[in-house]
Specification:
The structure is a single chain. This protein has 358 residues and is of the alpha/beta class. The protein is 32% helix and 13% strand. The chain has a domain at 24-250 and 304-325: TIM Barrel. It is built from 10 helices and 10 strands. Strands 3-4-5-6-7-8-9-10 form an 8-stranded parallel beta barrel, surrounded by 5 helices. A two-stranded antiparallel sheet has the order 1-2. The structure holds NADP nicotinamide-adenine-dinucleotide phosphate. Residues 40-44, 70, 147, 177-178, 202, 243-249, 252-254, 264-265, 302, 319-323, 327, 330-331 line the site of NADP nicotinamide-adenine-dinucleotide phosphate. This is L-glyceraldehyde 3-phosphate reductase.
């Protein structure tokens, strides 16, 4: 039986400029503004996670002006449950603010059985979006992404499906995720030819994962790259919405003692992506050094990690996860912190090493 909606109204001052509240950035050369810190649903919104905690985090997000919520067909666990739970939150008060929200979802990883439950075919993308809309109880999403490249499907077919999805009104904007620089250029060219812009790209980026800065990054698409992903996105006018900016928690105070606290992502058996094995001595030395820089600025390590990414105006938004409203508050405050000085950037550089914590 559906639960009765709990009365709730978002804070009147949610769009007031001020310390601790969201600031907005233009997404590439589109007309879309996104909060500099957005909230992701990969973890913390599945059936294994407490509903009331999810609700508190989401309500705080809206109260702080965090308008952008990032989902995918396979988020949970189990896969699909983050979208089902989000639908429940929409019916539980959030839905009154639908027109103030940018809701994203994606397809590209394995979601269903058989040949149409994975990849980049038109068949998979269109049917998966229909299922996502049904799970969330929505008529349309704001952004629909192809979640990862599928080398076995012609790019023309995948991009053609994204363009048709926009024309059908089921998504307002489209994006790609985890595409290399060269593949991104080609995707943008194909979409352009279809009269639909590539609005956004979602790559990973953090102090410990700097592949988007690296012109030598290769993905086997067409050999050696000559441009970094950030250079390509800047040139094309495509916004970068970067994921795991806190390196799943490694760039926070969560693990500075060298142990994974109870309930943390590294300690939870439902996370195959992060474990105590990631907490090496090298990691700890770098994280503690970065924490000292953060303390010198009166920031938490998480805030420093976000302020550092936001130093580059080709980044539209940092996409954080949060297991509590308090964490989200802490992260959102990074967007209104003073910019890093050249000396602070130089002090960070020796410790912001690609590959740390793997
Ligand atoms: N496109 C893709 O392929 C892709 C892949 C991965 C993620 N994403 C998107 O990016 C989003 C974010 O990814 P992520 O969850 O890995 O991001 P993250 O922000 O790097 O890590 C989030 C985790 O860090 C900890 N944390 C967050 N804020 C904190 C704070 N202020 N202080 C202390 N600890 C804090 C929490 O860990 P605890 O849970 O331990 O408290 C939280 O679950 C996802 O939800 C998803 O929307 C996209």
């Amino acid at each position: 039986m559906p639960l009765p909606a709990t009365p709730w109204t978002a804070a009147d001052d949610r769009y007031d400029e001020g310390a601790g509240r969201a600031t907005y950035r233009r997404c590439g050369r589109s007309g879309l503004d996104l909060p500099a810190v957005s909230l992701g649903f990969w973890h913390n919104f599945g059936d294994v996670d407490r509903y009331e905690t999810q609700r508190e985090t989401l309500r705080r997000a809206l109260d702080l002006g965090v308008t952008h919520l990032d989902l995918a067909n396979n988020y949970g666990p189990p896969a699909g449950s983050a979208e089902v739970n989000f639908g429940r939150h929409l019916r539980d008060g959030l839905g009154a603010y639908r027109d103030e929200l940018i809701i994203s979802t994606k397809a590209g990883y394995r979601m269903g059985p058989g040949p149409y439950g994975d990849g980049g075919s038109r068949k998979y993308l269109v049917s998966s979006l229909d299922q996502s809309l049904q799970r969330m109880g929505l008529d349309y999403v704001d952004v629909f992404y192809h979640h990862r490249p599928d080398p076995s499907t012609p790019l023309e077919e995948t991009m053609g499906a994204l363009a048709d999805i926009v024309r059908s009104g089921k998504a307002l904007y489209v994006g790609v995720s985890n595409y290399s620089p060269a593949r991104t250029r080609d995707a943008a060219r194909v979409l352009d030819g279809l009269g639909v812009p590539l609005t956004v790209h979602q790559p990973s980026y953090s102090m410990f994962n700097r592949h988007v800065e690296d012109p030598a990054h290769e993905d086997g698409y067409d050999g050696t790259q000559t441009e970094s992903l950030l250079d390509v996105l800047g040139d094309l006018g495509v916004g970068a919405v970067v994921f795991s900016p806190l390196q799943q928690g490694l760039l926070t105070d969560r693990y500075l003692t060298g142990a994974a606290p109870e309930g943390s992502r590294a300690a939870r058996s439902s996370s195959p992506f992060l474990s105590s094995d990631n907490l090496s001595e090298t990691y700890l030395a770098r994280a503690r050094a970065l924490n000292e820089v953060a303390q010198g600025r009166g920031q938490t390590l998480a805030q420093l990690a976000l302020t550092w990414i936001l130093r580059d105006d080709r980044v539209t938004s940092t996409l954080v996860g949060a297991s509590s409203a308090r964490q989200l508050e802490d992260s959102v405050a990074a967007a209104s912190a003073p910019a890093l000085t050249d000396d602070e950037i130089a002090a960070i550089e020796p410790h912001a090493v690609h590959g740390t914590g793997r």
